[in-house]
Amino acid sequence: MNQILLPLRSNVGWFRGQETRKMLERIIKNYLIIYDKILIQDGRYECVLGESGSWDFFIPSKSINFDRTKIEFFKPSQKFSLLIGNEGSKPKHPLNIGNVIAAYQVDYYPILNDAGLLNVDYIQWWEYDLNQKSKDFAKKEASGDERDEKLIKILPHHHFQRKNILSSFFIDSLLAFFAKLPFLVDEKILQIVRWKNEQAKQLWGPALRDVFLNVWISLEHPDFGNQSWEEVCKIRESRIGKNYRRMIQRVTNDVEKALPDIQNEKDIFGIVQKNFHKEIVKELQAKQMKPRTTFLNILLNLFSFSHPLASVGIASFSSAKDIWTQVKDKNSWINLLGEKYGAR
């Protein structure tokens, strides 16, 4: 079973506002099609980052006693204050963090509540967070990277914001390591991953199904993120959807075998694309596609690219239409290449 983890801390960037929330929704929709199961860290993470200080905390789902279907988005003019005091006493000492740079409330619950997917069996609410000892270890490891000159250039210049981003990455990396799963990150965290790749002079293996999805969309095949939640769930549960996931499994299995010899993400992209094209050919051969000349024309389009990142869109889109019109099996994943989905 192929799974992916959606942790809280390293995805704060998707919770900046309505636009980034829509981007996250599109990602989740695609994940529903390509992964057997999605694990979501259950709870809410909140943080406020200022020029002279910061604070953040994780609220386990069992401790949430407010309306979880809503979250607030930070506004630049918004003021924050935090009063502290002894346990059991009334808070009375203000915590000064200076001008607020950013603030986030991170929780997947509102998205899945609105989508009607809180209780489906292919989304698992993962009630787990690191203990304090493991968090301290992760933060200590993160602090070793804080002074790297190249990393400073690609991350926000505010100290506490940069510190939070690095700590979030190391904490969630450790979470994913314990779960033995790939995990989703926002754009800022992705910059750290790329920096780590360069620093280590080796590839930090990406989630191969994400690479497959990038190949699929780059070839102008349908982006499932554009579909409604209802349509996405129908595709997922259909025979077409299940056969599509089996096909991706075959592609990613072949790519995993080649990972030790791969030097960069572009090479992975090319190998995924090559194996995906092999799957198309196998599907066409299995369906005994006729006439033969159409089959050969499609093959020429599929394998005429000089580089995996070259201008593949137009030729492949034409091929997708040809393939879709030739394959009549309503259970074939090839139906997903069409502008409209076949009968399911």
Characterization of this structure:
It is a single chain. This protein has 344 residues and is mainly alpha-helical. It folds into 2 domains: 3-200, no CATH class; 208-337, no CATH class. Helix content is 48%, strand content 11%. The chain has 12 helices and 8 strands. It has helices spanning 18-34, 109-115, 132-143, 149-154, 159-179, 187-200, 208-218, 229-237, 239-258, 265-286, 292-302, 313-326, and strands spanning 3-6, 37-41, 44-50, 54-59, 82-84, 93-95, 100-106, 123-126. It has a 3-stranded parallel sheet, with no helix packed on it. A hairpin with a 3-residue loop joins strand 3 and strand 4 (54-59). Helix 3 (132-143) crosses helix 5 (159-179) and helix 8 crosses helix 9 (239-258). The chain is globular, with a radius of gyration of 23 Å. The two termini are 23 Å apart.
Q: Describe the biggest sheet?
A: 3 strands, parallel
Number of strands: 8
Order of helices and strands: EHEEEEEEHEHHHHHHHHHH
Low-confidence stretches: 87-93, 291-318, 339-344
Helix-strand blueprint:
Blueprint: E1 3-6, H1 18-34, E2 37-41, E3 44-50, E4 54-59, E5 82-84, E6 93-95, E7 100-106, H2 109-115, E8 123-126, H3 132-143, H4 149-154, H5 159-179, H6 187-200, H7 208-218, H8 229-237, H9 239-258, H10 265-286, H11 292-302, H12 313-326
Parallel strand pairs: 1-2, 2-8
Antiparallel strand pairs: 3-4, 3-7, 5-6
